[in-house]
Design brief:
Hypothetical protein af1432; 180 residues
Length: 180
Amino acid sequence: MLTHEQARSILESMTKSESLLRHARTVELVMEALARKYGEDAAKFGITGLLHDADYEAHPEQHPKVIVAQLEEMGENEIAHAIAGHYSKWGVPRESLLDKCILAADELTGFIYACALIRPTKIEGLAAKSVIKKLKNKKFAASVDRGEVYLGAELLEMELKDLITFIIAVLEENRAEIGL
């Protein structure tokens, strides 16, 4: 299996933006926590989170085809499939828990991070109800696809409030590293 060091090298070869590198890391942390919650392989889930947007900056028109092809060439088919379907509108079926978790983690983690950034105390004390209220404001973090957020919770058979609370806890636990 691909090592974390190899995955990080792949990410950094295509991604230079601090905000995208931070997003990759936050999704990696959430994916590792989801793996632990479900008794799955935390390293595989984490690498999936780390690499899900690896080609976004360098190849925006081809995203995620470049990273998916690279992972397939390396024999990382399960990770490649999950990344290929981390946005539902691409039409890739979500067959495994890994597939479902990356869709659930991606948009919502970014949205929660945005919610935390505008608060004086950042992630500390952020409540799920505040995040849900912000979700209803289409102008806030307008690029976040709310449909993906709701679908992610549904795929994991979790109440949205519970998934938000779970992700907040992961981000809060790692707040120093991720700038919150």
